Amino acid sequence: MSIRTLVWGEYIHEQTNADVRSLYPDGMHTLIASALGEDEDIIASTATLQEAEHGLSESVLDATDVLIWWGHAAHGDVSDAIVERVQQRVWEGMGLLVLHSAHFSKIFKRLMGTPCSLTWREAGERERLWVVNRSHPIAMGIDPCFELPQSEMYGEPFVIPEPMETVFLSWYEGGEVFRSGLTWQRGAGRIFYFAPGHETYPIYHDRNVQQILRNAVHWAASSAIAWKGIERAPNRPVDQAPEPIEQRGLSLHQDGEEGFQ
Question: Domains in the chain, start-ordered, CATH in brackets?
């Protein structure tokens, strides 16, 4: 069964910065989608901030198993209504991969419930990524460690809720370390945050990074169960109780009524 994956990008720096455009002439989202497409089980498409509804209409999201989110310069330009729509789909089982500076995106901060702040330095320093959970599906086919010649340093403290799993830990040339590959689950949806991906470096051209993203799509999609209406509390009538009961007292609601409880 094919995994329908949507790669969402701001697509701002690629259009305004010549250095970024030289690395990603068609946009980072396009390169990521192309790399995902090397897996015959993944069908990858793209959407950008500039499209109507940011390319994230209800029909598009309903047809998406895994959403990949890259943002940096325009977090505030993302419509709150679209954020709520994406959050709902995650609750229902859509996987979400959050890349690099999207740690500060509205959707990630909302799902985490924390500031999601960190320390950083843009100096093009070397980053060494260590696999700290060798048996995790996201790490399959990856050596115990690999290096990116140039990267933006992200450092602790990373103000996030305790992750479900830590898959990767990064060390930077300047000495800092960072939890750079983390998982959570919100409702029925699986979430993976992956830190490398600064736009002025060719990080998404790296074969290890591309393999990690393909692995993560498979991992996130495996929990895409149809858990519709999770935000509501459906009423279960007396005659549908697992064990017979006698109704006592007054009731404010009608049998079968849906409401927030």
Answer: 3-119+179-221 (3.40.50.880)
